[in-house]
Amino acid sequence: MNADSKANFNGRNRISTTSYLLDSGQGATSTGLFDGYSLPVAEIAECAGGSGEDIAMLSRYDALGRPVARWMPMALDGDAVARAVKNDQTLYQAAVEQFADAEALSRITYSGRPDRMPASATLGGSDFAAHPQLTTLTCSSPAHDARKVVRWSWDGSMLRADGYYSAGELDGVLTEDGDGRRTWVFTDCMGRQVLQRSAIGDAGRYADTYTVSDCWGNPLLVLPPEASARLGRSGSLTLGADAVADIIDRYAYVYGYDTRLRLRSKKLPGCAPVRYAYDTEGRVIYTRDGNQAQSGLRTFMLYDRFGRLVLTGICRDASYESFWDISSGDLPAMSFDTSDAVADLKRLSQSAPHLYADACLLTATYYDDYRFLTSSDRHARLASVRPPEAIDTPMGLPTGTLTSVLDPTGLSVISAPKTMLSVSYYDAEERVIATATA
After folding, report:
1. Can you list the pairs that 411-420 forms with residues at least 24 positions away whose Cβ atoms lie under 8 Å?
2. CA spacing 20 to 30 A to 249: which of 42, 48, 97, 215?
3. DSSP code, position 153
């Protein structure tokens, strides 16, 4: 955009941003134009076209500040943008010249309510203009098959069906895309999603995903379409307890929380649950998935005195299963600072075998300085790539990452694990200027 073209925008609200290439005077400039209500009416990428022309995308708004038209990006000079901001004729002409299509814009309409939910929206192009996405507000209703919502409840072990939600008890939004596919989303008075329903064809068949939440909005049970289909839509359970339990085990997502609303258990369909344990500061310190449970293992995390994750690894599982109960208490918080993760972890495993028996390193993260670099050949190679302008103590920033290479059993050898070490160097502005791995 030349100086004469920019003169067209004198007195208009605008913000220009230029991003420069490293060690180069060249940069990419974008300019946003705003109306008197601070709404963005034009976004211009200067010299971004294939022949160096400006690329502009313009928007129109209604009296409530809601977008009603968004034009596709087009090549326009500053004079044309200045005209296009005031009227649409310039945009229609440019659309015909560049796309051979005057409908190179997305049109958005709204209902009579003063909200921002579109009633219809189209994609750019004449082919899509006659196929808008439609949105309609609705509600639950036992008298209408498409709006019939089963009232499921879950107490952590037993599923119940207590009929249907009454008429108007749930708010609903019906969306129909340009191809006629319909989707309903029903939410309760607290905004929690209860059901997402998609129509399958025109024969009254639906794919339902139910979500049962606690009073805090945390999901307790998610029933995907296969589970919902097997449980039925009659509003009551006709299957036996064993059959229901099998459906939940094979198809449902199940979550469990403690009294502090922290996730303690997460079960995916057909899998054993993943368990979580916390310390007294609310940090995850142990996890265990189904494969680890069979092998008697668990993953642990260690943090430094600033609460930063410094080490992860695998160790032997607790000797008692009640350790993973949702009602079990938190373990005392501890801090772990290290400049030699392998040696320090070995000492920790020996001093606290009830917590970290047979501990094996997965990752270690170093912060603030480079004390972890010793005189070994590998460390010397990493230190040799350090730029002269790198600072010695990038406080609060990760300076190195040690990653274990696992053996075929999935464990690293604690006495002499194979590892990869990555180092990051920073300048005085705390920007990464060099990285190296060995």
Report:
1. 411/314, 411/360, 412/360, 412/361, 412/362, 413/360, 414/342, 414/345, 414/346, 414/349, 414/358, 414/359, 414/360, 414/361, 415/346, 417/342, 417/360, 417/361, 419/342, 419/361
2. 215
3. E
**CA 347/CA 414 separation, integer angstroms:** 11
Beta-ladder partners of 44:
31, 56
What tokens appear for 373 in the block?
């670099």
pTM to 2 decimals? 0.83
Structure tokens, 24 = 């180069």
Report pLDDT for 1: 57
180 pLDDT higher than 50 = yes
Residues 6+ apart with CB under 8 A from 101: 95, 125, 126
- Any idea what DSSP says for residue 410? S
Percent helix, strand, coil in the chain (nearest 5)?
20, 40, 45
Compute CA distances 240 → 57, 97, 243, 246, 250, whole Å.
60, 67, 5, 10, 16
pLDDT in tens, 330-350: 888 888 888 788 888 888 888
pLDDT in tens, 368-396: 999 988 878 888 888 888 999 999 999 99
> Band of the pLDDT at 413, cuts 50, 70, 90?
very low
Q: How far apart are CA 413 and CA 406, in angstroms?
A: 8
Distance between CA atoms of residues 435 and 9, nearest Å: 44
Task: Report the mean per-residue pLDDT for the chain.
Answer: 89
Taking CA 380 as the corner, what is the angle to CA 375 and CA 382, rounded to the nearest 5 degrees?
Answer: 135
DSSP string over 114-144: SSS-EEEE--SSHHHHTS-EEEEEEE--TTS
Question: Residue 58 and residue 70: Cα distance in Å, rounded?
Answer: 6
Q: How far is CA 368 from CA 54, 310, 372, in A?
A: 45, 12, 11
The number of C-alpha atoms within 13 Å of 106 and in the hemisphere containing its C-beta is 16
Give the CA distances from residue 292 to residues 137, 272, 411, in Å, rounded to whole numbers and listed in that order: 47, 10, 12
